[in-house]
Amino acid sequence: MTQQPLRLGTRRSKLAMAQSGQVADAVRQVTGRPVELVEITTYGDVSREALAQIGGTGVFVTALRDALLKGEVDFAVHSLKDLPTAQPAELALAAVPQREDPRDVLVARDALKFTDLPRGARIGTGSPRRMAQLNAYARSHGLDIEAVAIRGNVDTRIRYVRDGELDAVVLAAAGLNRIGRIEEVTDFLSVDTVLPAPGQGALAIECRAGHTARDADLVAALGELDDPFTRIAVTAERSLLAALEAGCSAPVGALADLLADGQIVKEMRLRGVVGTTDGTRMVQLSTTGPVPETHDQALALGRELATEMLAQGAAGLMGERAQ
Asked: Of residues 7, 14, 122, 151, which has the active-site annotation?
């Protein structure tokens, strides 16, 4: 008897389809069941407003979650950085697979690096976080850039450079890797220059929480794709974001990385940054400690760093604090 295919809910963009396709392959391997992609249009896909204006938080996620709750799909794949920090009780974050490269990258004309851009170079990004850090770096290194707010998929953004409207755009390395276009990158931006968004480079596999035996079985099967180190790191990053009471369109960067001595992982370092989009005022702090062994310890690490950042005035740098 042929098994019913598992229905995977995904956004329709080329990047979403690529990353969902990769997850579908992995799920077929661990479950032995066929997986079919169900394309769902989200509010963030159809709105042309800037993400900061439409709230950012959840605009790419809500329609997928609604389809899960209605039973129209069995599980969904999200870019983790798009997920609101509060997890609904009816849904389980079943797996966070191993993270891709979390860095931001530059795609510039004439194969230019960031530090080689001409005076007055126009750099496109839809992210207040990237704007804040690029402007701060430029100011401290005597560079003169103009950050330009843009929307659109990867193709659209890179076309601005190819058509000469912009000198460069900033994108996530992970996305370009997943759609096979990493060779178009002209500069990988060090995390010391631009801290990524909390959860950047990681995927979230979500399904209904195990209220039925079938749901519980799926939670367990998807859990085989979970990478414990990635989950601990992104939990700390998202805890920092939540404690700053900031949405995913706020100018907040965070990265937790593991510090190893040879093959032995010794500690975790969590870095956070928040700043005004013009880059004139920034709060950037880090903390290093033992690798959290539990979800609660990872949450505590993020909260502790957020408390220090708030004590240094972080709240006043975020504009409207997300409710």
From this structure: 151
Known catalytic residue at 129: yes
- pTM > 0.85: yes or no: yes
- pLDDT tens readout for residues 288-319: 999 999 999 999 999 999 999 999 988 777 75
- Whether 157 is catalytic is yes
C-alpha–C-alpha distance, residues 182 and 88, integer Å? 35
> Strand 121-125 to strand 145-149: parallel, antiparallel, or no bridges (unpaired)?
parallel
207 included as an active-site residue: no
3-state class (DSSP) for residue 285: strand
Instruction: Residue 12: count other Cβ atoms within 10 Å of its Cβ.
Output: 13
Other beta carbons less than 10 A from residue 288's beta carbon: 13
Rounded CA gap, 155 and 93, in Å? 30
Can you name the residues that pair with 121 across neighbouring β-strands? 145
Using DSSP, state whether 257 is helix, strand or coil.
strand
